[in-house]
Amino acid sequence: MSGSAFDRTPEQNALVEGWTPPEIDTSRAHSARMYDYYLGGKTNFPADRAAAERVLAAFPSLRVSARENRAFLMRLVRLLAGQGITQFLDIGTGIPIEGRNTHDAAQAVAPESRVVYVDNDPIVLAHARALLTSGASGATAYIDADVHTPESILDHPTLGTTLDVNRPVAVLMLALLHFLPDDHKPTEILARLTERLPSGSHLGLSHVTGDFDPVSWESIVNTYRESGIPGQVRSRAEFAALVPDGWEIVDPGVEILPHWRPDASTTEFPDPALVSAYALVARKL
Q1: Domain containing 261: what range?
Q2: For residue 110, pLDDT beyond 80
Q3: Which pTM value belongs to this model?
Q4: Residue 142's domain is classified under what CATH number?
């Protein structure tokens, strides 16, 4: 992969002194690499592609959903940066896409924006170290941590040196919560992740749903589980119920991804059944 993170020395990849690339298990599918495949990326392996193709056989338009999810991320970050939110905690970062990441959108509006990315896939880590680099006025950092243990994120020294958690922070968890079935206690995880944040902080979420095509989505979830990846689709009401106490969902509420504050230039929208994913943004009171 010419020009990729794997063509560089560990020192060139590192954003922190002493970092070296971890081992990458290519024998098992990973959700971030499957998502990269849906988006047409090349940072995936045979196990990822095989699992992704089984999913696409059940729901060929999943690539539409993936593209709409990335577009929602960019719209949301630009909107929040324009409203004065310049601190972002992006959990479940996924494999970077050049020019279409959280810091790209935020710093295009507010160059001083500071972003902490969180993921626990070694290949995401390797690319993040190489590609998620800040403009001169702001900052980016990366934490290798698992959302199942929120304190490993909140207490990580990198978080405290990059973000001022006494000022509003936007926590982004896009296309992540559907990998936390109810027995993983996602409501508790969200509450623990956000309880320390001050008033005025924001929470941006997206989540796949079976509301429009329950049969296909049951098949998709089963395919992920067979690949060792847990999952659960949720209805509109179940998705909204994940928002922690003390937070209010802001306008326009829970919407299909492309309908959440679309760009003014957008005149055509995909059929909701092709997207099958909701978005919401909440604000801490």
Answers
A1: 5-284
A2: yes
A3: 0.86
A4: 3.40.50.150
